[in-house]
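Input for the complex:
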Amino acid sequence: MSIDVESKLLIVDDLPENLLALEALIRGPGRTVYRATSAEEALALLLDHEFALAILDVQMPGMNGFELAELMRGTERTRHIPIIFVSAAGRELNYAFRGYESGAVDFLHKPLDPHAVTSKVTVFVDLHRHRKALGQEMEKLAAAHHKQKELVEQLRQAQRKLEHAVRMRDDFMSMVSHELRTPLNTLYLETQLRQMHLSKGKLESFAPDRLPAMIERDQRQIRNMVRLIDDMLDVTRMRRDALSIQPQPVDLAALARAVVEGLRQQAEAAGSMIALEAPGELRGVWDEFRIEQVLTNLLTNALRYGRGKPVEMMVSEAGGIARITVRDQGIGIAPEDQERIFEQFERTDDSRKHASGLGLGLYITRKIVGLHNGRVEVQSTPGQGALFRVELPLQADAKTATQARA
Amino acid sequence: MNVLIVDDNVAAADLLQELLTLQDHTARCAYTAQQALDAAAAEHFDAALIDLTLPDFPGSEVARRLRSATGEAHPKLLVAISGFSVEDAAGAGARALFDHHLQKPIDIAELTAILSSAPH
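Predicted:
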C-alpha cells in the first residue's frame, strides 16, 4: 500500500513563541504545520483544511482549548480529528472533556517533553497516513469496479445489437429466399410442363406462334429474380452506407419514356396502361441508372396495387426542380401506413403472411432520391389510389449515403 | 384424383393445373382463400394444394376451415405449399393442419408421389 500522503497538523496556542517551539518539534517530511493563535483562527483553518491532528493549548483567552474541541466534535467535518491537549500539569486534569469518548484524545503536559511530543504526534500521523492511503485504495477499487460494470454493460449492449443484427440478417435471408422461390417456382413448373409435353409427344406446345409468349413468360420470371437480387444488394450497400451515385447529364423526359415503354407489357398483363405526360426534353445531372430505378419502382407499385386501372406519370420542371408524379387509382394507402411504407422491411412475422415482394422498393427509392438532395412523398386516400411525388434538384452533387444522412 | 389448387399466383396455379391434368388428374384453381372455400363447398375434391400466402387470409386458415371438429378434412389430403421451409412456414399448430408440406419450387415427381400415396 502506498502511503504517499501529506499530513496537515494544526497547532493552536495564544503564545507565538510556544507555537514556534512546538512546530520545531513536530515538523518533518510529509507534514505541513498550520499555526493558529486563537480558537477562532483555528476554526477558520479547520474549515479550509483536512487535518491529521490538532494540538490545542487548553488555556487560551477567549475560547479555551476544551471549548474549541467541543465545537470540533460537534461538526461532522472535524469530528474525527485526533486532539492532543497541552495543559499545565496537574491543574486542569480535573476538567472532564465531554468529547473524550468520541475520538482519539491525548494529553501533553507543560513543560513539554520533546520525546513524548514527537512519539505521540508520530503515532497519530502514521495512523492518519494509513487511513488515508487505505481510503485512496478503496476509492481506486470502487472506480475500477464502476468502470468494469460500465464495460460489462457496453458489452451487453454490443451483444444485443449483434444479436439483433444477426436476427435481422436471418429474417432478411429468409425473406429473400422466399421471394426468389416464387418466380423460380413458376419457371420450374414451366420447364417440367415442357418436359412432360415432350415426353408425351405433344409438340404443338412448341409451335412457332406459341414460342414468343413462352419466352416472354420465362423472361418475366427471370427479370423478377434479377430485380430481387439487385434490391437485396442495394439494401446491403445502403446498410453499410456504401451506396453512391454518379451524376451525369441525363434527359429525364427521355428516360421516363424509355421506362414506360419497358413496362408496357407488364402493364398489359396487369390489365392496365401507363399514360405519360412529359416535356420534349428535361435535362439535369443525376445518376441515370438510379433514377431509372426510382421510376421503375414507382410505376411497378402503381401497376401492382392499381387494380388494373390506368396509371399516370407526369414529368415537369419548375424553379430548378424536376418533378415526377405517379398516380394510380388502386387500393390506396391508409394514413397510418404512409410513412411506414418508406421504411425498410424489418419485422417479418406479419408481412410473411400478407406481403408480396421484399418491401424494399420505396425504401430504396427514398434513399436514392435523398442521395440526389431530393424528396419523395405520398398522398393517398384508401380505396381512391395513391399519388407519389418525387422532387429532384436539376443538379445533384455526387455524394455517398453517409453524407446524405448528415 | 380431383385436386383443388389454391394459389394467388395465377401463372403458377394454372401451370400446376395443366401438369396435373397431363397426369390424368382433374384439377381446379382457386386464386383466393374465399374462392377455395367456395369451391370445396360446391364440389368434391380428393386433395387440396394450398399456398400459405394468400391475399385474403392465410392458407393455414383455409386448412383449418376445411377440417371438421374431429380433425377429418374435406378434401381428405391437405398439402401446404410455401416459399419457406416447413420449419419457417408456420407454427407447429398450423403445420399439424396439413398432411404434407412442399417448398417452392415444386417438384412434380414429389407432388405426384404424395398424391398417389393418399388413400382413395
